[in-house]
Design goal:
Number of helices: 2
Shape: elongated
Order of helices and strands: HHEEEE
Number of strands: 4
CATH class: Alpha Beta
Strand content: 35-45%
Low-confidence stretches: 13-21
Helix content: 25-40%
CATH architecture: 2-Layer Sandwich
Length: 93
């Protein structure tokens, strides 16, 4: 019984620490990166949208525990021009 409790606690700790690091992936981004470099650094986006020469990569990243936040990467002419959460650079959504 004690071993079962230890295993459950271990799994919970691994899950929580693994999820908490998810949103920290955004720290790996730099202005001027290409779309492919962004995907290699933080993974495939949840969705994408584009208008003219501007493309948005949308990510749902875990910020801790079971909470997720929406992050955006804005590419202008194929290079990272801005990134962050929706309120960080006037996305309007």
């Amino acid at each position: 019984m004690k071993l079962c409790r230890i295993i459950v606690i271990f799994i919970a700790v691994v899950f929580l620490f693994g999820c908490a690091a998810s949103s920290k992936k955004m720290n790996q981004l730099n202005l001027g990166m290409t779309k492919q470099e962004v995907i290699e650094a933080i993974g495939e986006p949840t969705s994408t949208s584009a208008k003219r020469n501007t493309e948005y990569l949308n990510y749902n990243l875990t910020t801790g525990g079971f909470y997720t936040s929406v992050y955006y990467v804005r590419l202008l002419d194929g290079k990272v021009e801005a990134y962050g959460q929706s309120g960080d650079f006037n996305l309007g959504y």
